Amino acid sequence: MSIVDELLSNSFVKIRNPSDVEAKLHKIIKDGYNNLMILADFDYTLSKFKDLNGKECLITHSIFVKCTQEVKPELSEKLKVICNKYGPFEHSTQISREEKISKMEDWWNLSHECIVDSALSHDDIEKFVKDAPLYLRDFAKEFMELIEIKNVPLIVFSAGIGNVIEMILQQNLGKIPSQLHIISNFMNFNKKNICESFTEPTIHSCCKNSTVISGEQAYSEDIKNRPNIILLGDSIEDVQMDIGMVNESTAIKIGFLNHSIDSRFDEYSKAFDILLIDCQSMEIPLKLLKLCENFDFKNVKNLDAIKNL
């Protein structure tokens, strides 16, 4: 049984081009950890889309809508109005990409202005995060622990809020992984620990790749000799996160299709190499990552290795 056959034995795994995926996986596994990097979205990719009761979880921005209803009701209402106005444009096929990008910039910038105007403190936000229904996927902790042990760079491109991502990781892992680089919208705090601005440029759902950032990046030295990529995302835009990775050789793109499965399946299965349907776990990416260690290609037909991970 091949690697792909073993993956497809899981009913939630879909692969449109098995032979292509098999070849990519063999290349990545053969080259090992020293030639690998991980690119990942955060909201609904590293974090869960729904909880154990089937209720939709929050994303990093929606914390400021849901968790402020009592303490900052004006902020919550303003953000709801902005979301209702601009949200329908995010996945619209009726407008040009240029217009969509303009709408997304307006949405993010207006939301950030409202958050700044509300004068939230760092402590306020930490409490929101602690109490919010925003959870890492099952096996996400083990996934990030393994890539730290193996010194595999993890670059998170997120249109969310970087400080919130760091707080979630700190609360779940007890630290920020040493090889993690977060490219996101970060809140700047003044001497009184009050949010006074956001970093620029604004990173929204249509510009999550390295081309949006100018100048040399902190992660550049870590990835310059790593041509292989495992990419993780939950939106069609996420497949472009590897744009600007100049030394890219082989990329396996794994997509989480969280909702509207019937209407979005064809588009997603064409865009992603491996599609995970209604899955709240990082089990498959973790299994593939583990295969990079001491994999015996002479016994590739006997996949006890992957079965026992």
TrEMBL record:
<dbReference type="GO" id="GO:0000166">
    <property type="term" value="F:nucleotide binding"/>
</dbReference>
<dbReference type="GO" id="GO:0005737">
    <property type="term" value="C:cytoplasm"/>
</dbReference>
<keyword id="KW-0460">Magnesium</keyword>
<dbReference type="GO" id="GO:0000287">
    <property type="term" value="F:magnesium ion binding"/>
</dbReference>
<dbReference type="InterPro" id="IPR023214">
    <property type="entry name" value="HAD_sf"/>
</dbReference>
<comment type="similarity">
    <text>Belongs to the pyrimidine 5'-nucleotidase family.</text>
</comment>
<keyword id="KW-0963">Cytoplasm</keyword>
<dbReference type="GO" id="GO:0008253">
    <property type="term" value="F:5'-nucleotidase activity"/>
</dbReference>
<keyword id="KW-0546">Nucleotide metabolism</keyword>
<protein>
    <recommendedName>
        <fullName>5'-nucleotidase</fullName>
        <ecNumber>3.1.3.5</ecNumber>
    </recommendedName>
</protein>
<keyword id="KW-0547">Nucleotide-binding</keyword>
<keyword id="KW-0479">Metal-binding</keyword>
<dbReference type="Pfam" id="PF05822">
    <property type="entry name" value="UMPH-1"/>
</dbReference>
<dbReference type="InterPro" id="IPR036412">
    <property type="entry name" value="HAD-like_sf"/>
</dbReference>
<keyword id="KW-0378">Hydrolase</keyword>
<dbReference type="GO" id="GO:0009117">
    <property type="term" value="P:nucleotide metabolic process"/>
</dbReference>
<dbReference type="InterPro" id="IPR006434">
    <property type="entry name" value="Pyrimidine_nucleotidase_eu"/>
</dbReference>
